[in-house]
Amino acid sequence: MSILGLWVGFIVLIIFLLFLDLGVFHRKAHIPGIRESLGWTSLWVVLALMFNVGIYFLYENHLFGIGHGKTVLSGMNLNGIEAAKMFFTGYLIEKSLSLDNIFVIGMVFSFFGVPRLYQHRVLFWGIFGALLLRGVMILLGVTLIQMFDWVLYIFGLLLLVTAVKMLFHKEEEVHPEKNPLVKLAQRFFRITSDYHAEHFFVKIPKETANQSTNHLDETTKVSGYVWACTPMLLVLLVVESNDLIFAIDSIPAIFAITQDPFIVFTSNVFAILGLRSLYFVMAAMIAKFRYLQVSLSIILAYVGVKLLCIKVIHYFHIENIMTWISLGVIIVVMMIGVLASIYANKKRVSES
């Protein structure tokens, strides 16, 4: 099997896991409990660690031509230890940054009043769309870097700006009604006022349809009914567009660790796969970790500076050391943020 076959095989595996998740284990809508969500979160983490072992053997033996050469598909010249370490560090970066995404998703669900029973369906299709989008962005980013290495400096500056913005904007606000995709959908499609279970599209009687949007052609009208979108579609559009914004931060961040496209893509994918179950674990807890925002901004600032110093790192041949340092910085900074949040909450409770 060639390197292209390896990419196709990985994508097929991920699609299989996603539809196994939705079509078999979560076929019936229900509200996941903390224990169930923790179980699924743990499963996705274990799968990521198992794949990391596979990364080691792939790159150590250069199976299917991976890690041997500097083409867009095969990536950098890496041995097994270096590749596995880069995958794990990239996975941790994406997982850490996804915490902020979880907070925004929670606010979107609250704004639209999405019943908890149907939130899983939105998250599933949101993750599926995010994977497709990330794949395109990563391949585009790798191609740009190989053609114009100064793009890394732009990524570094972007991360520094984002870090400063995240640090000083404590109260993050979300205005879904101002989202251009929502406005576009409201302009060109009929939107029902109520949710219809977990459906994105439904047929409604013509006489109950909003006459002000009666521009749909006759092919959409069947037996006295017309097609209409439900608010679930608007929620999905907002979730997808927000993920695009977060991807602009997270993808350049992992480029500070490696520019190998297979490691960048697979580490992103495995971090995103656990986002659905992680949401149900963290949604009720995220507000209690008040210093996580500070931790994330420090991590973004660190990787931004690392990208700006990428030439210096290459000149002194300290890429291996810097990967270990990056791994340590991410773990320590996140632990400090969590522990500081726990201490602050206990102090506030004792004083009240």
Overview of this structure, please?
It is a single chain. This protein starts with a helix and ends with a helix. It folds into 2 domains: 3-172 and 233-351, no CATH class; 181-229, no CATH class. Strand 2 (221-222) and strand 3 form a beta hairpin. The protein is built from 12 helices and 3 strands. The protein is globular. Mean pLDDT is 79; it is low at 210-222. By secondary structure, it is mainly alpha-helical. The chain has a 3-stranded antiparallel sheet.
Secondary structure layout plus pairing:
Elements: H1 3-25, H2 34-60, H3 80-112, H4 116-147, H5 151-168, H6 180-188, E1 201-205, E2 221-222, E3 225-229, H7 231-255, H8 261-273, H9 275-282, H10 292-308, H11 310-315, H12 319-351
Antiparallel strand pairs: 1-3, 2-3
Low-confidence stretches are 210-222
Strand residue percentage: under 5%
Number of domains: 2
Structural class by secondary-structure content: mainly alpha
Q: Counting H and I runs of at least 4 residues, what is the number of helices?
A: 12
Categorize the overall geometry: globular
Distance between the termini: 64 Å
Q: What does the radius of gyration come to?
A: 22 Å
Mean pLDDT: 79
The succession of helices and strands, N to C, reads: HHHHHHEEEHHHHHH
State the total count of DSSP E strands: 3
Strand order of the largest sheet: 1-3-2
Helical residue percent?
A: 55-70%
Biggest β-sheet strands, sense, barrel = 3 strands, antiparallel
